[in-house]
């Protein structure tokens, strides 16, 4: 018989796949002797079985649960539904990867009309017993029976109003008893059956509900966002209850062993006295900072500090810990590696190396390269006069400006229209997740640093402010007030998640300041990685920025943007419209000095680093006016002013536009096919490159130009174009008397080029895989059409796992890259290879490039730090793989 259920003492931390993260860690904490309430875990295997059996709990599982329950009962000396010592349990979901707040938990299970009285008698605390029972009814109804919490909240507010109470602690045992009767009526009304009284039935219904919650909408969205596979399933933990709501000697809280926002090595957390479970996370009451626990319950505080330190040392990483205090006794209910901002991830990793907790290689793996992006973005210039409105808790750093919206659906809608919005809520719940995704930032008026909004925003690297107590939100009027100021729906505000400040209007932004730890970790990355990191840059400014971020060269300098400059467009058009070579040459002669200036600027910015310049690539019609617009203009002119002198000119342009019109420009007359038909264009560009090279060499500036021919499919193309480049170099040397070195290579972006790379390598000094076009030509997709028409459908239906334009398709496109590298190096063993294109800045694609033995990746300037780290991780993972073999 397959084992489906494990007591806590049977598991340990490496069994996450089977027991889920929560279950594995509960087992581990039990194993090392921490005070964890007894319990058992129903494995993810049981969840898969459940789904394989069309959502039925099998007999085998039922039996094993009953056996585990018996064992739990004998250990605790309590019985589920017992009239002597009733056992109360929590039913908690827990998957392999933590999905905070995404799935459901039921507390106080085992309560019914009889056990509640027994509990009241045993604890001599009737108020506590009835409070626990009503919580159970509410949670169970919400999670298991599908009766929304809202109805219960509404009932409770009504009750408080009628009795003249301000807050829940004012309710007596008798009051709660009345509330419970009203609650039961709500259940009856919505489900047509009475609230289930049999604890075993309650238990199995809850297990089923947790299994089902794996596929609720918010959990699915969360998994999609975080690339968590859908087939993993969730485990279910059944754990005997401990109570933080027993009075002022009890409480519940959450703490991180280090600050998850800044990374500072200081215990960071919050708690509520006389409260249960989710009260802290839900943000319903704003909790106390952990430090004041020292005052409230000093001995518990001390024990907690010890436990926190012990857990961090044991796991070798920052921990996120849930605890409950029942009558001054501490219990630990959960631990996991804490989610953190990029800033915190880096600081913690670097400091843990200094503390000797982890080594540099582990530190490199602790930071998600994608997260680095958060740090490279602008901050608010506080010296500027922005009107400060209010201040809340700095829950997740970052600056953002946007229009105020209160509704997550609207946030999503407006984002879809390209507007930047800031989501303002009293508190957020897991159902708001799509709105948080869409918003630039989130602000809540209630809740603490560990509230749902804070945890989720930090995970996404989004700015967030919580517990903005002065903010009075009026959902009906769609506005909020701070003192006398009213901010309406769609007004613009700016927030600083690092300080907690909310400001009116738009603030000025200044460049980011990178921490010493940031530099340190990237330095470690540089020492570790094998791949070179270059950048795609078309201007001296971009080149400069990339060098600051650590780029070691330019992997792709596109020249077409230089042609798009408004002052140049007329000259470029003259070149295109020229009737003969003579006229074309005249236009090219005027473009030459401009291009020399372009390349000089870029070479200067890059100094001795290699610069790959790609000769003109797009089809020529891209430089001409739009056909439709021209036609409309001409027609209008013919009617209004037929004698106008521009009319003839416009007609001439229209004729050329028509001539250059193509059925499929992506596969048309572009790339080296232009250079083949109009070699004078590539000749001019090559001249410009070499003139700049020669002039700078004269000045003593070292320059390494690499001339790249785009869209080669046949070696003859490269051979011919190489000749054009070489002739230009000879000519420039003759004119200037300066000799210089350079290389000529090609982009590999047509399958035929990859397949005949051995022949092409005869004429190439380097290959640069243009993976954007190579993806288009391999799949036969035009990117724009694919992304706007059918790609989403493919992703939704699992035809493709990732958008191949974002994550390199290693099976298809990658095979061509491998083939290209292998064949190319067969001809020229030292052939330099790299990729340019967006994949050069994507971590999985970078890992592939590392494994394939490329020399470098090239990406946009802002992604250079990410690429440095991802390349180092690829190297570290490679050595860990060899160890495993
Ligand atoms: P989540 O994954 O959403 O945090 P949990 O399963 O951790 O859900 O539980 C929700 C809350 O209930 C947490 O605050 C947790 O500490 C508390 N809780 C869970 N089980 C127990 C228990 N056996 N006794 C007391 N509190 C519990
Ligand atoms: Mg939890
Ligand atoms: Mg291309």
Automatic annotation (TrEMBL):
<dbReference type="GO" id="GO:0005524">
    <property type="term" value="F:ATP binding"/>
</dbReference>
<feature type="domain" description="Pyruvate phosphate dikinase AMP/ATP-binding">
    <location>
        <begin position="55"/>
        <end position="297"/>
    </location>
</feature>
<feature type="active site" description="Proton donor">
    <location>
        <position position="836"/>
    </location>
</feature>
<keyword id="KW-0067">ATP-binding</keyword>
<feature type="active site" description="Tele-phosphohistidine intermediate">
    <location>
        <position position="452"/>
    </location>
</feature>
<dbReference type="GO" id="GO:0046872">
    <property type="term" value="F:metal ion binding"/>
</dbReference>
<dbReference type="InterPro" id="IPR015813">
    <property type="entry name" value="Pyrv/PenolPyrv_kinase-like_dom"/>
</dbReference>
<dbReference type="InterPro" id="IPR010121">
    <property type="entry name" value="Pyruvate_phosphate_dikinase"/>
</dbReference>
<keyword id="KW-0808">Transferase</keyword>
<feature type="binding site">
    <location>
        <position position="771"/>
    </location>
    <ligand>
        <name>substrate</name>
    </ligand>
</feature>
<feature type="binding site">
    <location>
        <position position="773"/>
    </location>
    <ligand>
        <name>substrate</name>
    </ligand>
</feature>
<dbReference type="Pfam" id="PF00391">
    <property type="entry name" value="PEP-utilizers"/>
</dbReference>
<feature type="binding site">
    <location>
        <position position="749"/>
    </location>
    <ligand>
        <name>Mg(2+)</name>
    </ligand>
</feature>
<feature type="binding site">
    <location>
        <position position="614"/>
    </location>
    <ligand>
        <name>substrate</name>
    </ligand>
</feature>
<dbReference type="InterPro" id="IPR000121">
    <property type="entry name" value="PEP_util_C"/>
</dbReference>
<dbReference type="GO" id="GO:0016301">
    <property type="term" value="F:kinase activity"/>
</dbReference>
<dbReference type="InterPro" id="IPR002192">
    <property type="entry name" value="PPDK_AMP/ATP-bd"/>
</dbReference>
<feature type="domain" description="PEP-utilising enzyme C-terminal">
    <location>
        <begin position="516"/>
        <end position="875"/>
    </location>
</feature>
<dbReference type="InterPro" id="IPR008279">
    <property type="entry name" value="PEP-util_enz_mobile_dom"/>
</dbReference>
<feature type="binding site">
    <location>
        <position position="773"/>
    </location>
    <ligand>
        <name>Mg(2+)</name>
    </ligand>
</feature>
<comment type="similarity">
    <text>Belongs to the PEP-utilizing enzyme family.</text>
</comment>
<feature type="binding site">
    <location>
        <position position="558"/>
    </location>
    <ligand>
        <name>substrate</name>
    </ligand>
</feature>
<dbReference type="InterPro" id="IPR013815">
    <property type="entry name" value="ATP_grasp_subdomain_1"/>
</dbReference>
<dbReference type="InterPro" id="IPR018274">
    <property type="entry name" value="PEP_util_AS"/>
</dbReference>
<keyword id="KW-0670">Pyruvate</keyword>
<keyword id="KW-0547">Nucleotide-binding</keyword>
<feature type="domain" description="Pyruvate phosphate dikinase AMP/ATP-binding">
    <location>
        <begin position="303"/>
        <end position="353"/>
    </location>
</feature>
<keyword id="KW-0418">Kinase</keyword>
<dbReference type="GO" id="GO:0050242">
    <property type="term" value="F:pyruvate, phosphate dikinase activity"/>
</dbReference>
<dbReference type="Pfam" id="PF01326">
    <property type="entry name" value="PPDK_N"/>
</dbReference>
<dbReference type="Pfam" id="PF02896">
    <property type="entry name" value="PEP-utilizers_C"/>
</dbReference>
<feature type="domain" description="PEP-utilising enzyme mobile">
    <location>
        <begin position="419"/>
        <end position="500"/>
    </location>
</feature>
<keyword id="KW-0460">Magnesium</keyword>
<feature type="binding site">
    <location>
        <position position="770"/>
    </location>
    <ligand>
        <name>substrate</name>
    </ligand>
</feature>
<protein>
    <recommendedName>
        <fullName>Pyruvate, phosphate dikinase</fullName>
        <ecNumber>2.7.9.1</ecNumber>
    </recommendedName>
</protein>
<feature type="binding site">
    <location>
        <position position="749"/>
    </location>
    <ligand>
        <name>substrate</name>
    </ligand>
</feature>
<dbReference type="InterPro" id="IPR036637">
    <property type="entry name" value="Phosphohistidine_dom_sf"/>
</dbReference>
<dbReference type="InterPro" id="IPR040442">
    <property type="entry name" value="Pyrv_kinase-like_dom_sf"/>
</dbReference>
<feature type="binding site">
    <location>
        <position position="772"/>
    </location>
    <ligand>
        <name>substrate</name>
    </ligand>
</feature>
<dbReference type="InterPro" id="IPR023151">
    <property type="entry name" value="PEP_util_CS"/>
</dbReference>
<keyword id="KW-0479">Metal-binding</keyword>
